[in-house]
Amino acid sequence: MVENSGDFNADAEQLAITGKSADDNLALNVAAHVRDAGLIQLDQVLSVYPIASDDMRTPSYEADDAADPAQGEATIAN
Fold first, then answer.
1. 3-class SS of residue 21
2. Which of 20, 53, 57, 59 is deepest in the core (most CB within 10 A)?
3. Backbone angles phi and psi of 35, in degrees to 5
4. How far is residue 65 from each of residues 37, 60, 69, measured CA to CA in Å?
């Protein structure tokens, strides 16, 4: 992305990464990798609502299975 930033009219000096749900996990892992490998320094990492566990049997996961959090349908687990 840095090398090809000019193709996208992007500023390679201001880098951010984001995702939503499963894409969020990918974004967080990419952010950790580029940081740990010393490849680039991200300016922003936006984590909207990551799936922070691979356990898909939790009560909140099952209750919100069909909900779209972007539409305000999800419940908040205590």
1. coil
2. 20
3. -70, -50
4. 35, 8, 10
